[in-house]
Amino acid sequence: RAGQEIALTFMEQPDALAEGESGTPAKYLASLSLEPDLERVIEVTRNSDGSFEGRETLHEFTEGFVRAAGQIDNSLFLDGERAGVPVQIIAEMIRMYSYSVDFQREIQPGDKFEVFFSRKFDQTNRPVKEGDVHYASLTVGGKVHKLWRFDPGNGEWDYFDENGQSMKKFLMKTPIDGARLSSGYGMRKHPILGYSRLHAGVDFAAPRGTPIYAAGDGTVQRANYFGSYGNYVMIRHANGYSTAYAHLNGFARGIKAGTRVRQGQVIGYVGTTGSSTGPHLHYEVLKGGTQVNPINVKFPAGEKLEGKALARFQQARQGMERQIADLRREMQVAVRPGSAKAACREEQPDIC
User: Fold this and answer.
1) Which residues contact 20 (CB under 8 A, 6 or more apart)?
2) What is the pLDDT of residue 21?
């Protein structure tokens, strides 16, 4: 990838001269190494017979848990960053709650968040990689939304509330991260044509290239340039529903008519193609071929754990709650004026 470093080692052959460079010893590649990611080192070395041999070395990391909490004064993204929460963890929280919380309209100053996630550390106890969100809590308008990560046993984990109800719904309300609702559903004066007409979807303003997700499982009906919509994707879902995504900068790899997609899968990127005054996603929900308001439509709920799966979830949830309670106490006891933890808290008030 761009920016990735590769180390090359060359050996000189004093008895041979480089072609076209009289007096300059010839060189040959003896080895190369690179780190494709933080956890692996790939090394390739030349053998005595001139062949090459490769090997992979895995770094050994320890895993721990981190708790962060804070109050929302601007947005979950900005205040989460201010509290020291890594960007990828904030993005995961936004995805977790995007099925039930309208981040553009419902979040208000004074709302609160808490997140409990894993983190990998190297041999010097330096954090090197963020892991998974295991628990999150978001207080919106006085109502607390708690979610726990859990695998029901089919190898496909999900987030569930305290009653074992999946956070997923049939379709997502906002199939994009961190965007601002710039235009709602209903009659409006068209910004280009100049006269009033029905705006049959909602617009989310976001930087060019922001990923756009499939709002639900389904089959791509079309993915091409479509008049004033510009680059356009339409997905057919179950129960007579379809979703449409317009003005895309481009399509994700493999997205074409007939492709099966999963909820949350990247299908394209924000752009300003077609009749558009700036980068944004125009998002439509259709029921029986007729556009409906994506914000107000009520979608069926996702999976509900029952029987043995519910019992295992409740046991895992209680164990996680004990871990979180212990971590809260450790942070309270460790943070004393003048301590190392206190110095950490001065830089990152809600996470150490």
Assistant:
1) none
2) 57
